Amino acid sequence: MKYLLSFAFLFAAFCGFSQIKEASKNVTYGAKITASGAIEVNLLEEKLNATDTYIGKVKGTVISVCEKKGCWMKLSQTDGDGIMIRFKDYKFFMSKNIVGKDVVLDGVGKKTTTSVEMLKHYAEDGGKSKEEIEKITEPKTEIEFIANGVLVI
């Protein structure tokens, strides 16, 4: 019994620590991907003006990440607040030290309307002040990307 409990503890610790990867070059989160064929994040909006959905790879720089769990991040955009990145089926999370890193994403991008409630939730998770959160009063149409995999480059 003692050995079984020790094994269970070590297994649980290993599983928990395997979710926490340091955001350094060539680290992959989610599905294993390569950088080949990725478009710059600023071209994503052009692609979405021509079609409802973009399926493929995008590369850009991370400007923010969920400070609670790493369950979302934003990529910088030439104009705008950044592109919201979430992770397919909530299967993986990002390291909280990913801000400022360049990444390649593989997945699906589309324009969506985000409710006031969700915008406030994301602002809270992103560490915004109560005053900043209270200023959110309108839904926002923005680009959202659901990533199957993320590669730090």
How much of the sequence is in beta strands? 25-35%
CATH architecture: Beta Barrel
Count of DSSP strands: 7
| Number of contiguous helices | 4
Task: Report the helical percentage.
Answer: 25-40%
Shape: globular
- Low-pLDDT sequence parts: 4-19
What series of H and E elements makes up the topology? HEEHEEEEHHE
Please supply descriptive tags for the structure shown above.
153 residues; alpha+beta; OB fold (Dihydrolipoamide Acetyltransferase, E2P); five-stranded mixed barrel; 4 helices; 27% helix; 35% strand
Descriptive notes:
Helix 2 (41-50) links the parallel strand 2 (39-40) and strand 3. With 153 residues, this protein is α+β, with helices and mostly antiparallel strands. It is 27% helix and 35% strand. Strands 3-4-5-7-6 form a five-stranded mixed barrel. It has helices spanning 2-18, 41-50, 116-125, 130-134, and strands spanning 28-30, 39-40, 53-65, 72-75, 83-87, 102-114, 140-152. Mean pLDDT is 88; it is low at 4-19.
